[in-house]
Amino acid sequence: MLGDEGFFMIDAILNSYYIQCLPFLFKGLVWTLIITIGGLILGFILGALAGMGRLSKNRIIRAICTVYVEVVRGTPILAQVLFIYYGLTEDVIGMNIDKITASIIAISFNAGAYIAEIVRGAIKSIEKGQHEAGRSIGLSQRQTMRYIIWPQAFKRMIPPLGNQFIISLKDTSLFSVIAVGELLYMGQQFYNLNFAPFQTLIMVCIIYLCITIPTSLYLRRLERRLDV
Amino acid sequence: MYNMITAKNLHKSFGSLQVLKGINVTIKEKEVVCVIGPSGSGKSTFLRCLNALEEVTSGEVIIDGKNLTDCKIDINAVRSQVGMVFQHFNLFPHMTVLENVTLGPIKVKGMTKAEAEKIAIPILEKVGLSDKAKVYPDSLSGGQKQRVAIARSLAMNPKVMLFDEPTSALDPELVDDVLKVMKDLAKEGMTMVVVTHEMGFAREVGDRVLFMDEGIIMEEGTPKEIFENPQNPRTQGFLSKVL
Questions:
Q1: How far from the centroid of its chain's Cα atoms is residue A26's Cα?
Q2: DSSP state, B138?
Q3: Closest residue in chain B to residue A141, using alpha carbons only
Q4: Whole-number Å distance between alpha carbons of B28 and B5
Q5: B6, B51, B43: which is closest to B25 by C-alpha?
Q6: Can you give the pLDDT at residue A227?
């Protein structure tokens, strides 16, 4: 049985900033996840194209893809975000981009370059003999890629793609600079109103960890199971 | 008899390295030709030119009347009629044995899965592996893998089979199973070109032996001529080392 003191403690915890900030933060988390997952799906498509482009026999395609990868890897993501949101204004591209769209574009553009390297590495890691065996039974280049190379390469992409998910998830926090209502931004809003940055930021970090730690544990298990 | 394979003045260079320096050879239907020679002599490169896995630098390769160096030719269609068996098997590790064998018939010939399996199962029986149809290549021995690779090529019902040192990566006790499958094929009248270090096989099964060195065919003849009475000093030197 709880005495008066016990009730008082539960009450104190529930009324503390640790708990009160949570509804706010969860709203932010939803946007964080939407931007991360949306960005990674588009980023994977972009990365798969750029990664295969870097392996193309066509010199121009290869050059374009290499420039893309090097530009993204060689510039800070914060500069990329600001460029996409503030730099690409209506007079430059003829339309306004809203904050969420800008964020998803920024993540896919950025992750796409890293995924391109993942894709390129995985495809290159498949022995040349697999390709030759496919071609020698009469499969076309495209069929060989689709039925022989990609299924094997994709397995090897899974661990680094999971890693990229964790990186991109954390990168979404940068969108607080353009006032996207993601997790960190919502935290900032809450502590500015309540003067409780310590409690709020601890909870922000715990929520990030609640996603990143299980992801990385799952990846480690998957890696062992796939034996890559 | 009908000329299945013709190579005319075949040259192949990798950069400045000349590997083939003018190969002229005609191989008839149902003939079994063994290619022997020291490593680096261009045997494998020659074989790989015969199904355009290597693009020839100059000269012509004609398979069953189709010129591989003609850029208008459907190279995939030609390859589907030329089986290739590799030294390192190159089975598809993400597919079962049966899927390895049926992939070509399904994707290249447009058969249904059931039709392809109807062809594949007797072929697997022929190479002695019908009980392994549902397993993945990982769980097979080297000799079994190579027999699956042969079955995979046979499923396309090829007119020619090319073998690139098919037993070189095998443990000695597994070599015979593979050679037996190849002998059976030869007896059935398959046109075969075999790059090999198995002199016993060349002598017993080959209709003709080509000795290659330094990118050309130094000497050719029946196994009896080459092994018992070689004319070229290079051939004599090579055979004295390997026999």
A1: 18
A2: G
A3: B76
A4: 7
A5: B6
A6: 66
Helix, coil or strand: residue A133:
helix
Chain B residue nearest residue A152, CA to CA: B94
Q: What mean pLDDT comes out for the span A95-102?
A: 85
Confidence of residue B206 (pLDDT cuts 50, 70, 90): very high
- What global pTM score does this model have? 0.87
Phi and psi of B58, rounded to 5°?
A: -155, 165
> What is the mean predicted confidence (pLDDT) over B88-102?
96
Q: Which long-range contacts (CB under 8 A, 24 or more apart) does B85-88 make?
A: B85/B146, B85/B149, B85/B150, B85/B153, B85/B161, B85/B162, B85/B163, B85/B164, B85/B166, B86/A129, B86/A132, B86/A133, B86/B149, B86/B164, B86/B166, B87/B164, B87/B165, B87/B166, B87/B168, B87/B169, B88/A129, B88/B169
Strand ranges (E), chain B: 3-14, 17-28, 32-36, 58-63, 66-67, 82-85, 160-164, 191-195, 208-213, 216-221
Single-letter residue type at B225: E
Other CB atoms within 10 Å distance of the CB of residue B211: 25
3-state secondary structure of A16: coil
* B-contacting residues in A 115-144 (Cβ below 8 Å): 127, 129-130, 132-140, 143
Q: Which two tokens stand for residue A101?
A: 């769209």
Tell me if B63 sits within 8 A of B160, measured CB to CB: yes
Could you tell me which residues of chain B have a Cβ less than 8 Å from any Cβ in chain A? 51, 53, 76-77, 79-84, 86, 88, 90-94, 103-104, 107-108, 149, 152-153, 156
Nearest to A110 by CA among A82, A67, A81, A89: A81
